[in-house]
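$ fold --in a.seq
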Amino acid sequence: MAALECKMTKVCPECGHAFQGNDWDGIDAHWRAAHEHIMSYEEAWRLIQAGTYRNKEHDDPESSYRRGYQHGAWAAMEAAKSTPEYKIRHWIDDKLAHWRRDRINDRGLKPPTP
């Protein structure tokens, strides 16, 4: 039996941007483009690697973690919505809902009110 792999998404400690790919790939370009005015990349990277970087606005590590987790979950959900399987399933569900509504109306029944 194959073991399930669970990989934590790395998240920018300053803004919550979720990095796709391997580990921290792309943080240097992201930091320099978005956060260089706060702190140099070299200094920030040293703190991030040590796990001691603290966002001044969100100094609580727990809230920072939650913000990053929520952002990562949102990005994963949006990525899943762009797959062809999701689009086909959504299209089928939409057509079935219209068909069911039309069948109810054809019989003179009122559709349920929300």
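$ fold --in b.seq
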Amino acid sequence: MAVHLGQTFVTPQAPGVLPHLWMVLSDPSRGERYLRFAEVRVADRGSLEKLLTTAQLRPSHDLTPDLLRRIQVAVAASKVVPIEAARIPTAQGLV
């Protein structure tokens, strides 16, 4: 299953696993790396697609363009987001 900018996913609840929201904040057409917002981690395309295919992630509602932009700006400007993650929206020209 292919992923796209603004798409969100939820980790289904399981024993010992709380539901978790994932958001694709970087452009899949511009590279293999994606931002996962919460701890703001970088995930690669193959890993996300595998999690979707194996139902370890469940698709949810896409972000609105306005909300996506606000989150991208916040990630890029944050002093607590890892630099590797904070640089991706700017490097892709999204902010």
